[in-house]
Amino acid sequence: MDVGNPDALILPVPPEPFALIVGTAMQGGSSDTVETALRRMGLRPERVDGDGADLAARVAAPRFRLTFGAVSVLAGPAADAALDLADPDHPSTSLLAASLPRRWRESGACWVFIPERDPKRDGAPGPSTVQPTRMREFFKMMVLLIDLFDASHIFWSPARLWSDAPQFRASIAEMLASGMPPVLHLVAFRRRENGADASMGTRGLVLFAGQELEARIPVGWTVAEMVRRLSRLALDMMLNGPVQHARTMRGLEAGEWIELLPPLRSTDHRSTVIVEFGRDS
Predict the structure, then answer these.
(1) What would the pLDDT profile of 185-208 be if each residue is shown by its tens digit?
(2) 19, 138, 150, 224 - which has most CB atoms within 10 Å?
(3) What is d(CA 244, CA 262) in angstroms, rounded to the nearest whole number?
(4) DSSP string covering 24-42, please?
(5) What is the pLDDT of residues 124-162, one digit of tens each?
(6) Cα-based distances in Å from 3 to 7, 17, 188, 237
(7) C-alpha span between 11 and 13 (Å, rounded)
(8) Alpha-carbon distance 172 to 211, whole Å?
(9) Partners of 97 in the β-ladder
């Protein structure tokens, strides 16, 4: 994971999540061929025309609305805005065991998938936590699409994170069997330099828990040690909800403790829980 880069020149996270895959199986296929393949997968494709400039900036023609269970998704070849956000060379982008092929952007093999918001279930417009059942349906759909497109890589926009597509697929299959979300594929862990100190924060956790995490890195701790601890806290929040009150708990090792300090007042969707790690004297 590309956790060592500072968050300089940060590009914004889009207001709604999307996934982008690089897959060669549908590369160069006609729109009718693509539609037929999607229909055979049970995704009930419908042609979408002229849904506004914002959609056109992210999804090129042919555009489809796909339906799977309780979720509908807008899909099509990735347009410039989506490709720009997914640029793996940008310092705001993280990579998890992923090395994209050369000319990935120009290959014509990139498709984007945007789950449509259900205001009755997902709450007010803008970034917020989403209804878990619908997100599970969306990830089930992505498993089918990774197979259909023979995808090599997948980008998850809330975390601005690239993953190896077969690994992502396997992690979703494990989630469906065990109920444990694949936190490392859905949340990025970013190291930040703060003068003399360094910290690590999450990106993308807010979609599932309404909060992000930020922790100072204790002297002598490695990035891997921080990711191990913060990922467990993130997983707990994904399963049980946001941190409502300050609390102190035992850490992973003997004599280690963790203090969680949520914001006094949650004024926006990017509220951050401050995490402190320490050891008994």
Answers:
(1) 999 999 998 777 899 999 999 999
(2) 19
(3) 7
(4) STTTT--HHHHHHHHHHTT
(5) 444 445 567 888 999 999 999 999 999 999 999 999 999
(6) 10, 21, 8, 21
(7) 7
(8) 22
(9) none
